[in-house]
Amino acid sequence: MSFDRSIKIAPSILAADFANFGAECAAVEREGADWIHVDVMDGHFVPNISFGPATCAAIRPHIKGVMDVHLMIAPVDPYIDAFAQAGADVLTAHVEAGPHIHRTLQAIRGNGMKAGVALNPGTPAEAVGDLLDMADLICVMTVNPGFGGQKFIDMTAKIKSLRSMIGDRPIHIEIDGGVDSTTAPLVAKAGADVLVAGSAVFRGGSATESAPYGENIRAIRSAAQGVWT
Ligand code: DX5
Ligand code: ZN
Questions:
Q1: Which one-letter DSSP state was computed for residue 86?
Q2: Which residue among 68, 89, 136, 176 is the active-site one?
Q3: CATH code for the domain in which residue 84 is found
Q4: N or C: which end of the chain has fewer CB within 10 A?
C-alpha cells in the first residue's frame, strides 16, 4: 500500500446485500471504489452485530485492492491475529475500546497490517496526540457507530485539528458516517482523504446492475475534489 492524500472512496459493505458480499465488492471496485470498508460489530462495544473474521476471510478473494477493516468490538487484542489471517490490509480499532490502545496499535503493525485508530464523535482529537507515530490512519466517526444510514454529525473542527497535528506524517484521515455528495466537500476541505460511504454508494443498483454504484461513487468523489478547483 503506497501513501498519498488523494481522495479515496471506500464503500462500506454494511449497506450491501449480505447474501452477496463477494459480488458486491467486485461490483463497487469495477465501478471505481478505491478501498472496501468492512464494518465488524460485536453487540457489546456497539449495539449491533454484523460479522467477524470468517466473513472477512471469505470476502478477501473478491477484493483486488485494499480491505479496510473497522473493528467496533471490545476487546480487540485477542482477535488481531484472526483479522491478519483473514487478509485485512488496514485494521482500525477504537480509542474507546479499551485502556491499552497503544499496545493494540503495536500489535496490529506487528501482525503486518496498517494500524488505524478511530474516534467516536464525543472523543476529542487530543486522544490520539501520543499515538501519531503508531498510526497509519485516523478514522473520525461522523455518526455514533453501530448502524448505517444515520445523519452526519459535523466534526469539521476535529478534522482540522487532526490535520494540523499530523503535519508531514504519512497518516490518512478517514471519515465514517453520513458521507454523501453534500457532506463530502466539508470533510475534504477540512483535510480528510479517505471517505467511507455505505448507503450513499449502495443505493439504486445491485451487483449485477452496478452502474448506479458508479454514478454514486463519482458524485461523491467529484463533490470532494471540487473543493480544490
Ligand atoms: C457505522 C459504520 C459505517 C457505516 C457507514 O457504524 O462504521 O461504516 O456503515 O454507513 P453510512 O455511509 O450509511 O452512514
Ligand atoms: Zn465503519
A1: T
A2: 176
A3: 3.20.20.70
A4: C
